[in-house]
Amino acid sequence: MTQSKTNVITRIFSNLGYKLTALALSLLIWYVVQGEEILEVNAKLDVHVEVSGSSAVRDYEVISRDITLRGPRLLVGTYRGKSMDAIIRVPASKIGSLRYRLDKEFIPNFDSRIRLTIHDPYVAFVVEEKLTKSLLVKPTILGEVTGDIVLDEAVSVPASIEVSGARSEVSKLTHLLTDPIDVSTLTSTKVVTLGIAKANLPAVTLSDYEVKVSLVVGPKKSIKTVSFIPLLVEGSVYSSSVRPLSISAMIRAADGIIDQLGTKDIHAFINAKDLVPGHYDLPIRTKGPDGVVIQEVNPKTASVEIFNHKKRD
User: For residue 5, what pLDDT is reported?
Assistant: First the structure.
């Protein structure tokens, strides 16, 4: 038995140099044959548009084109059914409707030994001046709170988000909406994390894509209108006059409180701090006791005259 094993080992390692040489030659021949064999595969070309920081692409989406690659198997075999990237870099001086013909020059590190056929090689897009502005975030509330409580407020943090994109698209936006939140099962105050709703939102960039919304509940409240609330001018060292002299306010408060509230409990004022003498139309501000929600004031603005002499002490 030992002699048989020895003969097998001897045969394996005899003429080892010749055997290794034959193996290397066979691998080389295989590599050459594979490298020389011409293969044709179908793939995708994803086209990305890069613009300067002061520009933006309107209605931007990644453009995709069908392509055919033809070349040595070792070079093109790995691309079968996959995607390649092409990058169009638009100079800052180019604005408006642009049209490019795709070619190898737009594909980074493309091997020149591969023949490229792009089906429908032309792409068109619009580049505009970039606009950035801050928009308020409005929580999207579904359903109603049940039982003896109501939803007093839904406050977003951050309250506003910066939006950047093509001027024609961003200029149309007035606010942002969150993804909807169903409050029908809400039983207490809570904070939820919500995304910004993408529906009807153009291709823009946001400074934040999520917000925290504080859903504050409280006891059910009744509504009451309080009239003849004196309107005051505050914050100015100058004498002043205001029209109208009083306003009305629609307030909401718990049943046990609202009947006791009157004009003396609602503070209506105009903030005239840092205003120089002159005539102004300014928003009316209000404050109320804790637990009182001022839903609406009438009117919303007042006419203020700041005189060119200071108040007497």
Answer: 53
Q: Is 242 left (phi over 0), alpha (psi -120 to 50) or beta?
A: beta
∠ CA 248-252-254, nearest 5°, is 140
* The dihedral sign for the CA sequence 153, 157, 159, 164: negative
Q: What is the pLDDT of residue 23?
A: 63
Report yes or no: 222 and 255 within 8 Å, Cβ to Cβ. yes
**Is 0.70 topped by the overall pTM?**
no
Beta pairing class for 63-72 and 115-118: antiparallel
The number of residues making up the chain comes to 313
Residue 251 to residues 41, 52, 130, 155, 221: CA-CA distances in angstroms?
71, 51, 43, 19, 10
Collapsing DSSP to helix, strand or coil, 108 comes out as coil
Q: Which own/partner contact pairs does 102-110 have at CB distance under 8 Å and 24+ positions apart?
A: 102/45, 102/47, 102/65, 106/47, 107/45
| Residue 19: predicted pLDDT | 59
Ramachandran sector of residue 300 (left: φ over 0; alpha: ψ -120 to 50; beta: rest)? alpha
Give Cα separations from 158 to 6, 46, 152, 176 (angstroms).
81, 35, 19, 12
What does the pLDDT read at residue 36? Answer: 57
pLDDT < 70: residue spans in the chain: 1-36, 313
Q: Annotate 191-222 with b (16+ C-beta within 10 A) or e (fewer).
A: ebebebeeeeebebeeeeeebebebebbeebe
CA atoms within 13 A on the CB side of 247: 25
Which conformational region is residue 276 in: left (phi greater than 0), alpha (psi within -120 to 50 degrees), or beta? beta
The CA distances from residue 192 to 35, 173, 175, 182, 252, in Å, are 58, 25, 20, 11, 25
120 exposed, middle or buried (CB, 10 Å; 0-12, 13-18, 19+)?
exposed
Average pLDDT, the chain: 88
DSSP-assigned beta bridge partners for residue 127:
57, 96
Cis peptide before 158 (omega within 30 of 0): yes
